[in-house]
């Protein structure tokens, strides 16, 4: 089992001088310094010292926080840092370029691990390389613990748990519609996206685009679910339209991964559970405009000369939105679950935050995930539904415990209610018209 002996630090923030890493440290400085043992880690001691100095203006005692240094390409040096922690929070991407040794050493040293990657091809390789050893040792390796994919993953878990525990039934289909929001983008995120497009084989990218069980199949789950695709989509249970959401290709695979891991613990989401994620739109025309914008983004990222040109006008790695922009951001998502019953019911919920999704929210999501692993370990171990170790999703590792931590940190995750008898009739009628609506969208 992992963590049989005390470690000097409960939390080590890896990549603490980067844009998101610094924000994780800022959250600790404001809310947890003196309550947990922690350290900052990275490659450049001068940059780390600068971050520590800046954070001491928020909390003067942060000036005493230890600094640990290692190059991500030096496995023994990484191991010397990782073995000092109960959990490592990794923020330095692109992870396919800088993350392999950190994950490998976490498993080797018996240290829990959580990151903010959205690089689903790298996540698949991580499962293939490390799941068996991590499961054997009781080490929890959690990928996608930021805005990609905690709202989708934990939001869906919340809806499924409500249906199973309160309504006594599974879920045949869940939806997440991305609503109003405002946020910025950092150079690190852009670099990760460009790295996936430029480095992965076209055959692997095609598989990502076509296989909803890209991650779940490694845990033994297959089914009939399909990716959302690029066309406008009519969401029949709530009678509205949606366009493609750029991160659906990652988030949906993480949701199905959670379904697979819960199924292994005899808590499947549904008999043939399906998941859809899209950007809420005002009618078919609005959804069509979302499709056009998404195609344009894909062209810019996918065509090397356009990608190079775009980089000249976008933030460089290490740069990102200002503090004013981060704190002025917000996001709101609508959650929908259709019950697995002869006459289906529609359960509706919401999740959101009053701060920037990509960075302020992401950094806090990662921190709360890591703290759940070390501070709430007895509660996690007491829940038979949660995996004991392995490479896994946030929901499968932390489930209701992480939901509680996120709510306490200011996030909203709420089940709004269940549609009544009239709603049941509408669901049935809408389902009958879904095929016709889809045909209209295709034209």
Automatic annotation (TrEMBL):
Signal peptide: none annotated. The keyword Transmembrane applies. SUPFAM superfamilies: NAD(P)-binding Rossmann-fold domains. It comes from Volvox africanus. The lineage of its organism: Eukaryota, Viridiplantae, Chlorophyta, core chlorophytes, Chlorophyceae. This is Saccharopine dehydrogenase NADP binding domain-containing protein. Coiled coil: none annotated. The chain crosses the membrane at residues 279-303. Keywords: Membrane, Transmembrane, Transmembrane helix. It comes from the Eukaryota.
